[in-house]
Amino acid sequence: MSTARILIAARDPALVAKLQALLKILDYTTAGVAASASDARRLAESLKPDLMLIDVRLEEAWQGIQVAAAINKQWQIPVIFLIDSADIEALQKAKAIEPVGFIRIPLDDNEVLATVKLALDKQWVERQLQESEQKYRSMMEAMSDLVYICSPDYRIEYMNPAMIRKVGRDAVGEPCYRVFFERMQVCPWCAMQQVQHGQSVHHEITNPRDGRIYHAASMPITHADNTVSKMSILTDITERRQAELALKESEVRYRRLVESATDYIYTVKVENGRGVSTLHG
Fold first, then answer.
1. Which of 67, 69, 188, 202 is most open to solvent, judged by the fewest CB atoms within 10 Å of its CB?
2. pTM for this one?
3. What is the pLDDT of residues 4-34, one digit of tens each?
């Protein structure tokens, strides 16, 4: 995680100096200092800091809260409020914009360090999760295989574009067995029960709608609340199975032909235009 850049918005020079000294202990950089609402907006836009520490009473009563709400909405910069612990009314108003934390005035060194570090660590984790989710979604959307996720009660939670094209619509919220296979009840081959016990299941299914043959790979996705959804990836193997069947039928026909032949049959191996060996029978 790179060095965090933090914007401080407060009028009290002594408060600002104390915060800067504490941030330096954690190797965080003070990106800028704003002493007014207009300065806070300007610096937030130009500097795009990782975090903003802002006094709830930056100018008039609760001006800091209004400025923080606007900055967070426009540039998604997380906010920690600096607030007098006795100012209950300001605390209630500040909670409404869902800051990542509060630091009480007068400052407690340990509280400042812990609150800022926790906020930045949480932000880093959320950013990593978001990037991971974006990569995962991009991968799913680029796949030609049919992918869907359904809940334990068989409701579709996600369909990749290939599956949407196959079905003809985005059917999130509908029962998977009805959408994909036109059944009125759960498919007899469904792997939901095994998936709910943490197993990954691989098997072949034939879609009764069009007769296509699929290799189905089903696996569990565990959510934060410990519920488990089933993700299935369907790979169309119809042509492969048809080719295998045609080859097998061809081998059978050839074998029958050989077994019923009354003429003498032999095979000559040719290399560079010359026969080098003969296989009789």
1. 188
2. 0.56
3. 999 999 999 999 999 999 999 989 999 999 9
